């Protein structure tokens, strides 16, 4: 019985697991990746009819080489089956996004840097001797006081005795809040401008302060 046709059909359907390359592939089995540095077949790649077939063959061969490397790894058996132990990673992938730019300094940070001021972190909870418990310094329930603590406000001298001191205090607080909001917006605008230009310029007030101090020091020396 002649089985030549059957064997040929079998070979055509199932290709061998051995693949020869002019330049061996570089593998990083940890991420299941192979790097093929061989040159493309320009003629087959330029032919629209043969391009798809050529790419499928190239993909199949490289995948087979990667699978061959996986089968070389040490294996262990457990309840789920046979598991291969992957080696350590050898390749580094590039970043998806560029490195973040340095955040521009705010006015206070510039001032603190010039003066050498270091921030000291204050604990949020502080012990209240009168209440005999820890209370929040800020945030939710921050600075909580009894309602009877400010039941009486002293009227300052030369002030209108008919003026509502509670309303005045609330108005002053609103003004401080608005002033802080304007300062924050100004800092954001300056930070945005420095990010666009790429040049963070120091605050002009610091330079003027330095200049005034130097000039005053010179005057004192002359005296």
Automatic annotation (TrEMBL):
Involved in ribosomal large subunit assembly. One of its GO terms (cellular component) is preribosome, large subunit precursor. This is Ribosome biogenesis regulatory protein. Residues 211-223 have a biased composition (Basic residues). It comes from Phascolomyces articulosus. It holds the Pfam family RRS1. Residues 165-178 have a biased composition (Basic and acidic residues). Its main location: nucleus. GO terms for biological process: endonucleolytic cleavage in ITS1 to separate SSU-rRNA from 5.8S rRNA and LSU-rRNA from tricistronic rRNA transcript (SSU-rRNA, 5.8S rRNA, LSU-rRNA); ribosomal large subunit biogenesis. Residues 159-223 are annotated as: Disordered. It is found in: Nucleus.
């Amino acid at each position: 019985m002649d089985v030549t046709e059957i064997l040929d059909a079998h070979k055509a359907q199932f290709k061998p697991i051995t693949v020869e390359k002019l330049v061996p592939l570089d593998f990083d089995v940890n991420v299941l990746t192979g790097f093929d540095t061989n040159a493309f077949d320009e003629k087959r790649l330029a032919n629209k009819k043969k391009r798809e077939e050529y790419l499928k063959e190239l993909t199949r061969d490289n995948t087979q080489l990667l699978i061959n490397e996986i089968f070389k790894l040490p294996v262990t058996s457990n309840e789920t089956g046979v598991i291969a132990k992957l080696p350590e990673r050898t390749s580094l992938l590039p970043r998806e996004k560029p490195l973040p730019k340095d955040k521009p300094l705010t006015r206070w940070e510039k001032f603190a840097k010039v003066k050498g001021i270091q921030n000291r972190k204050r604990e949020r909870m502080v012990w209240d001797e009168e209440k005999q418990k820890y209370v929040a310094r800020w945030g939710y329930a921050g600075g909580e006081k009894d309602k009877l603590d400010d039941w009486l406000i002293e009227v300052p001298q030369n002030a209108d005795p008919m003026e509502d001191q509670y309303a005045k205090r609330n108005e002053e607080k609103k003004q401080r809040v608005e002033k802080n909001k304007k300062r924050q917006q100004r800092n954001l605008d300056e930070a945005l401008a420095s990010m666009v230009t790429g040049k963070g310029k120091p605050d002009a007030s610091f330079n003027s302060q330095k200049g005034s101090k130097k000039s005053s020091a010179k005057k004192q020396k002359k005296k």
